[in-house]
Amino acid sequence: MSILPNLTSEIRYASLPEHFYRRVRPVPLSNPYLVSFSPKMAEILDIDPASITTPEFTEVFTGNRLLDGSDPIATVYSGHQFGQYVAQLGDGRALVLGEVEDKDGTSWEIQLKGAGLTPFSRMGDGRAVLRSTIREFLCSEAMAGLGIPTTRALCITGSKDEVYREKIESSAVLTRVAPSHVRFGNFEFFFYRQQYDDLRLLADFVIEQFYPASREAKNPYLDLLHQVIDKTAALIAQWQLVGFTHGVMNSDNMSILGLTIDYGPYGFLDTYQSGFVCNHSDHQGRYAYDQQPRIGLFNLSCLAQALLPLIDSEDGQAAAEKAKDKLAEYQPLYTEYYQQGMREKLGLMVPHQSDAELFENLFSAMENQLDFTRFFRALSGFEQSGENHFLRDQFIERIRFDQWADAYSARLAGENSDQAERQQKMHRVNPKFILRNYLVQSAIVKAEKDDFGEITTLLNLLTSPYDEQPEMESYADEPPDWAKTLELSCSS
Ligand code: AMP
Ligand code: MG
């Protein structure tokens, strides 16, 4: 039985010169076992369901056995970490096995994360722990369920081989899947080394593979920047709209395709807290929830700077000016995506000049009081002429809700909004279920005792986060008290 029948040994990124990557071999783990897999992703990759439970499947996705023709690579990149440029990073514990083209013609890189040392491991051990692998696996598939651009995950395998973090943990390998794992940092690497020919090769590669329309533009590299600005603005707006905090928005963790990538100490808001910091190593709150849109711009500025040597200034306008003009489009684009998304969350159809104020007043009333996800889901039951006690009673300062509800009612009235229709639409954008930290934590605690059932339960639940799923009602609850003090470190 072929494990990945459509795997091609050809890796598009490996068509670039040798110094863009290194050929590597995964380092085996002892007695690996399958922890979990994503049926959705298996289907996309056309994997025979019967093969998934075979020992061969586990061996391949642990890196213990290479498929015929597979010649894996680890890529080099750099990036700005917490604002500081780090000249050399790279796939320190990840390698691309090969690619699979799906029925729709999309080629997916199949990447093992945690499969051993690479030339870019620096001080690391090339490994991933079970805990962090479960977090990345579940969140990538949950984001896909929400309709938010993300790298995907096929499966997790585990081994009792020990890994040293704050304590001894067991190891695991995540199979990550994406059309490309290229980051802003891949561009920065060549820019800071003044290897402008290589920079051009990389940009040409990305344009050819992922932004073919930019090739036709008057200034293709400037257009590439524009496309990435647009995709990043859209992505971060979507994060804000579901209360997602990435936690480590370094420029090496920013995808050139506008995908959410590198899930570490991420977190979804439980109670709405604008300054929520999910990563306990982030003492300054650089990557707080409300900072993300701004950090998006910082990272795009890093990318813009790296692209400068490629941007044509023949028409007399300096490249830096052109790049600045493009960067200036970010904020308005972000605001447009965000406001459109907020209107949808509130069931509003038509833009209005008072929108920003309506959203701000709501959030300031919710601050430190209301559960983000539960409130927006419940809001679909709002009645224009009703008292709306089920909402009102959640606010400590009820007067603030009353004031807001009056303004909201007026907006709904102005649109002749129909409640039943509005509710249906609001349910398609305000998830009932999100991957709350306490839910992941419960799955991790069980998995560390070799019970992987909760991972499957969460995966199934979050594949359809907008559906009611009455038998799963308790999974929509606010976190229990024990979970309120959970701390997430960067270690993974
Ligand atoms: P991250 O903060 O997880 O995005 O990782 C930043 C950099 O450190 C990347 O280049 C990773 O490949 C590398 N890295 C993280 N953990 C390890 C590890 N355990 N072994 C080797 N490299 C690692
Ligand atoms: Mg990273």
What does it look like?
The strands form four sheets. Strands 1, 3, 7, 8, 9, 10 and 11 form a seven-stranded antiparallel β-sheet that branches. The model has no long low-confidence stretch (mean pLDDT 96). With 492 residues, the protein is an alpha+beta fold. It has helices at residues 39-44, 55-62, 130-146, 184-192, 196-210, 212-215, 220-242, 292-307, 319-327, 330-346, 355-366, 372-379, 389-392, 398-414, 419-427, 437-447, 453-463; strands spanning 7-8, 21-23, 33-37, 73-75, 79-81, 84-86, 94-101, 107-113, 128-129, 152-164, 168-178, 244-245, 267-268. Helices cover 40% and strands 13% of the residues. It has a domain at 348-416. It contains 17 helices and 13 strands. Bound molecules: adenosine monophosphate and magnesium ion. Adenosine monophosphate binds at residues 89-93, 121, 124-127, 248, 253, 262, 264, 492.
What's a concise summary of this model?
With 492 residues, the chain is of the alpha+beta class.
Helix content: 25-40%
What's the average pLDDT? 96
Gross morphology is globular
Strand proportion:
5-15%
Count of DSSP strands:
13
Query: What is the count of helical runs?
Result: 17
In terms of structural class, how would the helical and strand content be classed?
Answer: alpha+beta
**Biggest sheet, open or closed, and with what strands and sense?**
7 strands, antiparallel
Bound molecules: adenosine monophosphate, magnesium ion
Rounded to the nearest angstrom, the radius of gyration is 23 Å
Low-confidence stretches: none
Write the H/E string, N to C. EEEHHEEEEEEHEEHHHHEEHHHHHHHHHH
Separation of the first and last Cα atoms = 34 Å
